[in-house]
Amino acid sequence: MCNEQIRDPDDYLTTGFLTDNTALRASALNYVQLHRSHAHEWRSLHEAIGALRELADSGEWDPAALQPVIDLLSEYDW
After folding, report:
1. Phi and psi dihedrals of 32, rounded to 5?
2. pLDDT value of position 78
3. How far is it, in rounded angstroms, from Cα 6 to Cα 63?
4. Contacts of 7 (CB under 8 A, 6+ apart)
5. In this structure, what DSSP letter does residue 50 have?
6. How far apart are CA 38 and CA 19, in angstroms?
7. Could you give the CA distance from residue 71 to residue 77 in angstroms, rounded to a whole number?
8. Model-level pTM?
9. Is residue 35 within 8 Å of residue 13, measured between CB atoms?
10. What is the pLDDT of residues 18-72, one digit of tens each?
11. Hey, how many other C-beta atoms are within 10 angstroms of the C-beta on 69?
């Protein structure tokens, strides 16, 4: 997003691999990396949260495993 190196591990957020199912919007979020402090600037933040909720509802993931990431991103969705 900002193209700056993430130097502080406490400011690091990554989604890792989520899905290879391209029918799910979350497939576009595989390996996203960003500064937590910049998350509120992410233009697609609201859509990303929706895509993660969709993934949680899809049965590909245990919803409880995705909920902490959804909750964290929601803190920045003003």
Report:
1. -65, 135
2. 76
3. 28
4. none
5. H
6. 24
7. 10
8. 0.88
9. yes
10. 999 999 999 999 999 999 998 988 999 999 999 999 999 999 999 999 999 999 9
11. 20
Distance (Å, rounded) from C-alpha 24 to C-alpha 52? Answer: 9
Strand partners, 14: 33
Q: Which helix (H) or strand (E) holds 3?
A: none
Radius of gyration of the chain (CA): 12
CB contact burial 16-39 (16+ within 10 A = b; e otherwise): eebbeeeebbbeebeeeebbbeeb
- Token digits for 6? 């993430």
Residue spans per domain, the chain: 10-75
